[in-house]
Fold this protein.
Amino acid sequence: MRPNIFPALKYRDSLAALDFLTKAFGFEEVSVHRGADGSISHAELRLGAGMIMFGGGQQSGWLGGGTPDPLAGTVSVYVVVDDPRTHLEDARAHGATIVRELAEMDYGSTEYSARDPEGNLWSFGTYDPYAVISEAR
């Protein structure tokens, strides 16, 4: 099954976000659309079978609403990775703020959580909801 949910984030500094997300979290560029001034208006990044989209904050329009403030938000992004320990080490080495160290969860996952430079909360671990669905069938 192909993913059909794609988190879309807003960043104050979308150029720095692109650099961070590719280096610290291992995302790969799929598509990056830039404005005349070189700023990123829309980007699509992939990690495994998952994909995120992001761009700069806009003050007006359907994506408007003001400057992004992730610390006031209620959404976080969870990403399945094969080796969370190595992923954590790479993220830390590239400046991610680790807010939950690697832990073994009671539901069988090994995972950690980090904030990107603008405060968005990311968790990476081995818990895979698709695998749980397959086992239940």
Notes: The chain has one domain: 8-136. The chain has three helices and eight strands. Residues 24 and 91 are 4 Å apart (CA to CA).
